[in-house]
Structure formats: structure tokens, C-alpha cells
Write a structure and sequence with these properties.
It contains 11 helices and no strands. With 362 residues, the chain is mostly helical. The protein has one domain. α2 (22-49) runs antiparallel to α3 (52-90). It is elongated and about 85 Å long. Pfam families: 7tm_6. Keywords: Cell membrane, Membrane, Olfaction, Receptor, Sensory transduction, Transducer, Transmembrane, Transmembrane helix. GO terms for molecular function: odorant binding; olfactory receptor activity.
Length: 362
């Protein structure tokens, strides 16, 4: 892969390199410990007050912080795998089809625009949440905890919490969504590069045998690294699924329980919704692309004119065909995968919750 590609370097800086800086690591550790401490104090407040109304009031911001901390924890544990895998793929010395490379570079430019837009939306959302409003005390549990446990340092603690929300928001965008996209860009380059060589195999049996061996080894290497990344990512699917579901449910309940509090929160809600939709779109598109590429490889193999090949080449072709039968999938469960269908279902589920809550309110 072209190491001088500017778009790829932009991704490398914002998704990988920034988290290798020692100062950034120390800041993340500090804010992680800081917010975990706050979560413990808030749990004690939930238990002490034992009020449904109190839980509904601060539940959304509580679970938002839980989600952000989960992002940091998974970032640390998944970083070695992502960094090592992408570095390994970049080190491959393979012939590159220039036609595919030009197409890839154009696609990479579009995906980099997506990176900039998503990060910009996330930082705008963080800015809106940092800016104080009159009703913050009824929205953010940090304000309640600061008033209850640190009355003398209340303003300092609240502002420190708001400042910490900015880097945590950045991490929640990068991990896991943008890192999945980043890892997939490397795999996509090699998979489709391999496909071009498969499509254009010509010559006698010796030349076809040489091309088949190259493509088979190339595809096996790609398959192993992609499956390794998928296994590493899928470990964290269940925790994200649980926290995300609880968070969505809490936000929906809060919306109908405290509508009067939301009078000056619509800008925050709108920016958060747009950012969440953008992240969901990127995840769904990456998951769908992972599935589609499996079908593309299989289609190319099936359409090869293999009837006149030698017996040894036919056996190698059959081996290649068998290796492509198992589709790449990023699974949430045995029956649910990360793709367009899952994205649509998540949107439907969210609006279903809103609809049910509206009827209950009436």
C-alpha cells in the first residue's frame, strides 16, 4: 500500500498516532479515573435517594459516561491488534494494479471527507455540551454530585467534568467506529487488488498456475488478518450492545418524563442525533462492505473460465473456491450482523420506543 498517500496519513494521525502520544495517554488515564470516581459517587446517590424520578433524571448522562469509559477501555485493549494488523498489511510487497489503485485513492478521499465531517460534528456536539445553560443542574449528574460531595469546589469540579467531556467525545467517535473503517480500508485495498489479478489471468497452464498460487496465498493472508481483526473487535460487541440499549431506553424515557427541562437543550439533542446517525452510517457501511467483498470474490471465481485448465490448476481453483465459502461478517449475535439491515433496524427500534412512550404519555 502507498505509504505516501496523504489521505491515509490523515487517518493514521487522527485514529492511531494521536493515542500513542504520552501526554494524551496520561490525560485519558486521568479522566478515566476521574469519571469512574464520579460514577461511583452517583451510584451511591442513586442508592441513597432510591427515587425513580431521580434515576430517570440523571440516567441518560450517567450511561453516556459509562459508554465513554467503555470506549476508552476497549481502545486500550484493541489498539495493539489494530496497529499491528494495519502495519503488517502496509508492509506487504505485492504488485499493485494501477487501475484499482486510482479507484481506491478516489474512494479513500471520500472516506477521508467522512472522517473530517464526523470528527467535526462530534467536536461541535462536545462544544454545545460544554457551554453552560440554566438547566444543566437538572441534566448532568456531575453537577448534582459536585454540589453534594464537593460544595466548596463545585464550580471547579463541574468545569473539569465539562473539559473532560471533549476528549472522551473524540474517543467515542474513533473507537470503535472510525477504527473499524480504518482497518477495513487496508483490507479492502488488498482484497480488490487480488480480485484484479484473478479477473485478468491469461496464458498457458504454467502462467495460470503461477497466478493462481500467488492469488491463493495473497487471499489466505488477507483472510487470516481480516478474521483476526473481526474476532478481536467482536469481543467488545456485547458490552457496547448492552450499554447502548440501556442508554437509548433512558434517553427515550427522559424525553417524555422531563419535557419541560428540554426547552434549551434542543441544539444539544439535534447535534448529538446527527453525530450518532453519521457514526451509525459509517459502521453499517463498513460492515456491509465487509460482507459484499466476500460475495465479489466468490462471483469472480465462479465466472472464471476454468474448464480448459489442467487438473492441478482445477484442484487449486477448487481449494480457492472452498476458502471463499465462509463470508466475512462482523456479528452482533448469531443472527445479527453489522450491516445496512442492522442500521435500519436500529433506527426503527429507536422510533418504536419513541412511539410507545408517546402513547403511554397520552
Amino acid at each position: 500500500m502507498d505509504e505516501d498517500n496523504k489521505c491515509l496519513k490523515i487517518w493514521q494521525i487522527f485514529v492511531i498516532d494521536i493515542f500513542e502520544v504520552k501526554l494524551v495517554k496520561k490525560c485519558l488515564i486521568f479522566f478515566t479515573v476521574y469519571f469512574i470516581f464520579f460514577l461511583i459517587l452517583q451510584v451511591l446517590s442513586f442508592v441513597r435517594k432510591a427515587s425513580v424520578n431521580y434515576f430517570v433524571q440523571f440516567g441518560p448522562t450517567f450511561f453516556i459516561i459509562v459508554y465513554l469509559i467503555l470506549c476508552i477501555v476497549t481502545l486500550y485493549f484493541s489498539s495493539p491488534l489494530i496497529v499491528a494488523s494495519t502495519k503488517y498489511m502496509r508492509s506487504w510487497k505485492v504488485p499493485v494494479n494501477q487501475q484499482w489503485k486510482r479507484q481506491y485513492d478516489q474512494n479513500l478521499l471520500l472516506v477521508t471527507v467522512y472522517l473530517v465531517v464526523t470528527l467535526s460534528l462530534g467536536m461541535i456536539t462536545a462544544f454545545f455540551y460544554v457551554m453552560p445553560t440554566e438547566q444543566d443542574k437538572q441534566v448532568f449528574f456531575e453537577n448534582d454530585v459536585a454540589e453534594a460531595y464537593f460544595p466548596q469546589w463545585q464550580n471547579f469540579v463541574i468545569w473539569l467534568s465539562k473539559i473532560g467531556f471533549v476528549p472522551l467525545t473524540y474517543i467515542s467517535i474513533v473507537q470503535p467506529s472510525l477504527r473499524i473503517v480504518y482497518g477495513w480500508m487496508h483490507a479492502k485495498f488488498h482484497i480488490y487488488n487480488c480480485l484484479f489479478f484473478l479477473k485478468n489471468m491469461t496464458g498457458d497452464d504454467r502462467e495460470i498456475a503461477r497466478s493462481l498460487k500467488f492469488c491463493l496465498r495473497y487471499h489466505v493472508e488477507i483472510t487470516l488478518i481480516v478474521r483476526k481483526i473481526l474476532r478481536g473487535v467482536q469481543i467488545y460487541v456485547l458490552p457496547f450492545q448492552i450499554v447502548g440499549t440501556v442508554l437509548i431506553a433512558n434517553v427515550a424515557i427522559y424525553y417524555f418524563w422531563f419535557q419541560d427541562v428540554l426547552t434549551d437543550q434542543y441544539l444539544r439533542i439535534f447535534s448529538l442525533g446527527i453525530t450518532a446517525f453519521t457514526i451509525l452510517f459509517g459502521l453499517a457501511q463498513s460492515g456491509q462492505a465487509i460482507e459484499d467483498v466476500s460475495d465479489n470474490v466468490l462471483d469472480v471465481l465462479i465466472n472464471l473460465d476454468w474448464c480448459d485448465w489442467s487438473e492441478s490448476n482445477k484442484k487449486m481453483y477448487l481449494m480457492f473456491l472452498v476458502n471463499t465459502q465462509r463470508q466475512f461478517k462482523m456479528k452482533y449475535s448469531e443472527d445479527i450482523s453489522l450491516n445496512y439491515k442492522m442500521g435500519v433496524e436500529m433506527v426503527k427500534t429507536f422510533f418504536s420506543i419513541i412511539s410507545v412512550m408517546s402513547r403511554l404519555q397520552k
